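Hi U.,

Before I forget, here's the chain from the pilot set. I'm dumping it here mostly so it's searchable later in email.
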Amino acid sequence: MDNNFDTINENVFNGEENIPLQSFYAELKENGFPVTPLQIIHAQKVIIQYANWVKNEVELCQYLSPIFAGSEEEQHLFKKIFDKHFKREIPKPLSKQQLSVEKKLKQHWKKLVIIYGAIALAVIGVIVYTSLQRKQFDPAKIHLYISNKNETSLKAPLFTKTNTQIELVTICKYDNKSDVLETDVQYNWGDSSITDPLPSHIYITSGVYKLTAYVSVRYRDKIIKKAILHKTVNVCDADNSLAIKILSANHTITIGEKIKCIAITNHQGNNSFIEWSIDNVNVGHRREVDTAFLFAGVHKILCNVFYDSINSACNIYKDTSITVNDKTKPQPVVSNTNPQIKKEDDTIEPLQTPNNFLQTLYKSLAIIFSLLALFFMLLYARQLKKTGAIKSNVLDKYKKLTTSFTTKKAPAILPFKNRNYLPAQQSELDDIAKLLRRRVKDTVTFLNIGKTISKSIEKMGMFTPVQDARTRQSEYLILIDETNTNNQQVKLFEYLVTMLKKQNVLAEVFYFKKHPGFCYNIHEPKGIGLEKLFGKYQRHTLLIMGNGHQLINKTENNFDETFLALLNRWQHKAIVTPVSFLDWQREEKNILLPQIPIVPVDMEGLVLLAEILTPKGNAVDIIARLSRNSGAFYKVKGIDFEQLTVLEQYCNISGWIRQNENGKSINVLLEWVLALSIYPKLRWEITLAIGKSILEKYNLRHQLNFTILLRITRISWMQQGFIKDSLRFEMLKKLSRKNEQTARETILLLLNEIPQQEIESSNSAEEKEVQQIINEFSLYAHDPVFYSSYHESKYMFEKLWQNNQLNDTPTESYFKNQGRQWKTLINQHNNDNETPYNVGVEEYLLSNNREETLLSKVYLALAVISAVVLVSSIAALRVLYIWDNVL
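Structure:
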């Protein structure tokens, strides 16, 4: 098994095998991590086990870090290597990619609706126009005919007998329809009679007369055409008639079959001759004519009977049509009459000629827009369902959250992960730790063999034992003033002790409140007095980290004798005060210093402390030494840190503080301090994390060190442990939006790191969730595309806001931003203009709610427009049907 491990290890880093994360393991090994085969196997097991839960590289890093990193420093280094290695594989943020379809729809919805509406309007216009054209009559297409009532031919001359009444009929056709239009006719019969509307007349004298008819065409009592028709009327003394008889061997006439055409007349007198023509070709002049047809089809047979002369009024002609069939093809029905004339009543039959193009057009439009209407309705329903599902989910979460507000639990203290590994190490701390680790003489002695031999020789062989004291590394008992639990200077002292311990300085830490006579720590939660502490740690050097003012008798203005007696039991002791040397008053100089060494916690003071604790340290003049280095100190007392202008001056300490951003000079340290107002409570972990994020943004990571942290913790409200609401409000307004965004992202990372099981039994779960909602909403309102995953928090925030459940007055006032008096992260995105503009939260929520329903409204509008076109198409089809079939 060991051989297998060695082989795997060798192959991995020689590149002979391709295992998962091979290159990453190689980078770890290059940076000092052992990366054993067992660790690789464990890493693979973790990846397989948690594959369904790991969502991104950040979570994968959190799962793998405990396998390879054994300390906070190694965890930090592991994360840096991991981020650097997988940076090229991290996808670009959504805001850098092409905007989504929905985003484009929201931006250009007006254009979309207008363009689609214009297209639909144009289509409806075409439908209406073509439909109205069918309902309108083109005068040029109206055809008028005057015929003898008993005559079937519309174009033949009229024929009548003298002293016999002739009855005429006026036929009006529009697209072969004769019963749609009405006519009014005035007749001028061509003789000496007057013009009248009667369609009947009696001619007295034979001859050829020119009939003139004045016709007015009406449709629904509206005259749409006027015309003058001329017709020849042949008036003969005799009652002549003509009929054509066709004789054939078969009922159906076929190609090549001979037929006989017979003219039957009842004339009086001699006729000049009979003339036959078939398809306008003269075929004979006898009463009977034989003929045959060479091709199939409808053939027209015309017979003219001429009396007296060619221009005689008694001349008469008759025509008929026959159908010749091809035996090899199906035989149509033979008709010997004009197909436009009904034999029953001699009226014109409407020919069915539906407009196929319009029918196809209307049907196509109906199908297309019915599909489009259905498509947009589906989108509309899906959008409503999507929004409804989100709101339903949010409502459930909101009810669960607000229900827990009323339960009685322990005070909310979020267990943020320790961040003391973040500050950069200062070289002075290494030197200080080296001095503090010095070895000192112990009370225990041992027999020094070398010195004993030498002494015995000097005594002429008499055995003279020499005892020497043993040496040991210096040990320290550190008492930290925790009178104010949330005093950030306490956290600074803890960070300092942690750094010294990492440098192998031996120290035991206790805390005290009000005075150091009663101390406690995790091992002594009930507390322990100074006397017992001395019994346990009498060989330790006593260090009191605090201003030491609790040791002063306020009544007599001198060092309290009780405490002095207890402290004097320790041979080596000192006070490390957070008070800057330039702010020392009589308490430090005249009361504490004469009885016990006191140094400021500045780096120069710590160096001096290390010298004081040496055997010759009693000879050091503390005031003189500190005065020589007074340039390294700064005044804090008397500064009103609640004035932002004064706070800015305090933060303007050196050249690196000022950085250029977008052409403007920005105070980086001030931005760091202002960003602390994002979270409603002062937390050391948040101070470090936000500082890291902001400083890295300006490539100033190395400035996150003990010296800068000391300067920050000397701000009065950092010592008090809270920021007044009025000051927080002003700080939020002063903070730049870019750094606010960075700070909120950082706080969300810290909140997400908290294990759920650690906060289930307290109000911390509610505080964590509310803070997540506030910060996620702010980021979503700033950039809804990049932070689209925080969409639900917008709804949750809206619920909390409407019910006044944020419980954070400065943040509420900051978000409200009435009149847009200052800049916030809350942006309103104008769909017509991609440039966002700042608004108050109430205006944002109102407009955002409209925007949330914008897509559904757009889809509904498009569906309605499509439905209108669909209805128009169906109506046009109905009109077309009525026009072609009913009328």
